[in-house]
Amino acid sequence: MKFTSVFDIIGPVMIGPSSSHTAGAARIGRVARDLFGRQPKWAKIYLYGSFAETYRGHGTDVAIVGGLLDFDTYDERIKTSFQLAKEANLEFEFITETANKEHPNTARILLGDEAGEMSVEGISIGGGKIEVSEVNGFKLKLTGGMPAILVVHDDRAGCIANVANALAMHHVNIGHMEVSRIERGQTALMVIEVDQNIDEKILHQISLIPHITKVSKINN
Amino acid sequence: MDVLFRNVKELVELAESRNVLISEIMIEQEMNITGRSREDIIAQMDNNLTVMEQAVERGLNGVQSVTGLTGGDAVLLQNYIAKGNSLSGELLLDAVSKAVATNEVNAAMGTICATPTAGSAGVVPGTLFAVKNKLNPTREQMINYLFTTGAFGFVVANNAMISGAAGGCQAEVGSASAMAAAAIVEMAGGTPSQSAEAFAITLKNMLGLVCDPVAGLVEVPCVKRNAMGASNSLVAADMALAGVTSRIPCDEVIGAMFRIGQAMSPNLKETARGGLAATPTGKAIAARIFGGTA
C-alpha cells in the first residue's frame, strides 16, 4: 500500500499551488538535506517529466530549494526561498531533462559541500507524498513515512550483522530492511526502516564499525 | 499494521455490520496503522479543518494570483448569490463559490489543506461549508466529514491514483468530488451504502477528465473544475439520498478510472502539452508569462 494514513489524503497543510509539484517537491528537497546530514553549499537539481515541463508554474523550484533549507510544506518562507538560499550561502542550479523516468514527477538532486557530496533521487507520487528512489546510484524505495537509516559500506561479510547488532543493543526495532550493491565486493548500501527516530549517538557508533563509510538518517 | 478496509465494499460492509459511521472506521484504522491516540488524530484533523476555514474566508475576501489569471471570482459569486435571483440555488452556488475561494488562495500560493491534492483542494471544503449552513453540524460532525472523505480517498489512492500527472484531472477533481459526495450523504443522514452510491455516481461522470493546465499553472482550468466538481458532488449526493443507485459498483468505477488514467496520453497528464494548454490562447498566455514564442 502506497498510502497508509488518512492525512496522506486529507493533507498536508501546505503552501500552494500543487501538492505533487510544490509540497512533494519541498519534501524531496528536505529529505535530500536530511540524508546529506547538514545544509549543503551547492545543489544541482535535475527535473524530469511533468516536473521539467511545469516546474516554474508550480513553484517546484522554490519548493525544492525551500526543502534544502529545511522548510516544511506549510512554511511561508518557501515563497522567498531563492533569496533566503543566497543569504544562507547555498548555490543552486536547475537542469531540465528530457529523458523519460518511470515516474512523471522525478527530481534528482546532487548536493554537496567541501566535505563531500551526495546524489538523491525522489519521486512525488501524489497528494504531497514522496518516495526516495535512488541514493548515490543505488536503487531503493524509501517512503519517508517511517524513520530510516541509510548505511553505505564495503561489500564484506559481517557488515550487515554488525549494524543490526548495534541497533539491537540500543533496542531499536527494524521494521523493514533492504540491502543492495552496485558490484560484488565493491560499495553496498543498507536501507533500514525503524520504529523510532534514531539519535546521533547511535549513528556515530554505527559509523565507527569497520567497513562502514557513511551513515545518514531520515527522521519522521 | 492492521488495515480494516482495502476497497469500498469492505468499508461499507464494516460500517453497516457494526452500525457505525464510515468516519469512525477511518479513525480506527488510523489508530491501528499509526499507533497514535484517537485524541491526537482528531486534533490533527481539527487543525486541517481550521486551515480550510481560513482559506475559504481569505478567498471570499478576494485574492489575486501572481500571474493575474485567477482570483476574485469567489467574490463575484457571493455578490450574485446575495441578489437572490440565482437559478441553480443558493446552497449549490455557495459551495461553488467556496470551492473557488479555496483554489484561488491556492493559486496565489496561500496556505491550504490538500484534499486529496492542492489542485483539487476546493471541492471538499467548498461543499462542507455550504452544507454546514443547511444541516448545522457540530464541530465533531464536520471533522467526521473529513474522515469520511479521507476513507474513500484512501481507497482511490491505493487502488488507482490521485495525481494529475499519473491519471489526469479525473484522479484529482474527480476523486475529490466523489469523496465529498460520499461525505455529504453521511452528514445528511444517509447510509454507508448511499455514500458509496453517491461516490460512484460522481466519479462515473468525471471519468476521462484530462489534466491540461494552461502554462502549467494550477489556475486555468483548475479553479473552475473545482467549482463544477462541487456541484457534481451535491447533485450526486441528492440522487443517492433519493434512492438512485449506480449500475456499476463503486470499486469497479475506481478500477475503470485507473485504466483510463494509464491509457491517457502524457500530453494530457499535467505536462501542459495538450488540451486547453495547447489552445492558441493557452499558448499565448504561457508565452506572456514565461517568455518565448506562442
UniProtKB/TrEMBL annotation, chain A:
Task: Name all ACT domain ranges.
Answer: 148-220
Q: Does the keyword Lyase apply?
A: yes
Q: Which InterPro entries match?
A: ACT-like_dom_sf, ACT_dom, ASB_dom_sf, Fe-S_L-Ser, Fe-S_L-Ser_bsu, Ser_deHydtase_bsu
The entry's protein name is L-serine deaminase
One GO process term, biological-process aspect: gluconeogenesis
Q: List UniProt keywords, sorted A-Z.
A: 4Fe-4S, Gluconeogenesis, Iron, Iron-sulfur, Lyase, Metal-binding
PROSITE patterns in the record, alphabetically? Answer: ACT
Which GO-annotated molecular functions does the record name? 4 iron, 4 sulfur cluster binding; L-serine ammonia-lyase activity; metal ion binding
Q: In which pathway does it act?
A: Carbohydrate biosynthesis; gluconeogenesis
TrEMBL record, chain B:
Q: What metabolic or biological pathway is this protein involved in?
A: Carbohydrate biosynthesis; gluconeogenesis
Broadest EC class? lyase
Question: Could you tell me the Gene Ontology terms of the biological process aspect for this record?
Answer: gluconeogenesis
Keywords per UniProt: 4Fe-4S, Gluconeogenesis, Iron, Iron-sulfur, Lyase, Metal-binding
Reply yes or no: does the keyword Metal-binding apply: yes
Residue ranges constituting the Serine dehydratase-like alpha subunit domain according to the UniProt record: 19-277
Classification lineage: Bacteria, Bacillati, Bacillota, Bacilli, Bacillales
**Cofactors:** [4Fe-4S] cluster
**What catalytic activity does the UniProt entry give for this protein?**
L-serine = pyruvate + NH4(+)
Origin organism is: Ureibacillus manganicus DSM 26584
Whether DNA-binding counts among this entry's keywords is no
Which stretch is the leader sequence?
Answer: none
Family the UniProt entry places it in: Belongs to the iron-sulfur dependent L-serine dehydratase family.
**Which superkingdom does the taxonomy of this entry point to?**
Bacteria
Protein name (database record): L-serine dehydratase
InterPro entries reported in the protein's UniProt record: Fe-S_L-Ser (IPR051318), Ser_deHydtase-like_asu (IPR005130), Ser_deHydtase_asu (IPR004642)
Q: EC number(s) of the enzyme?
A: 4.3.1.17
Q: What Pfam family does this protein match (any one)?
A: SDH_alpha
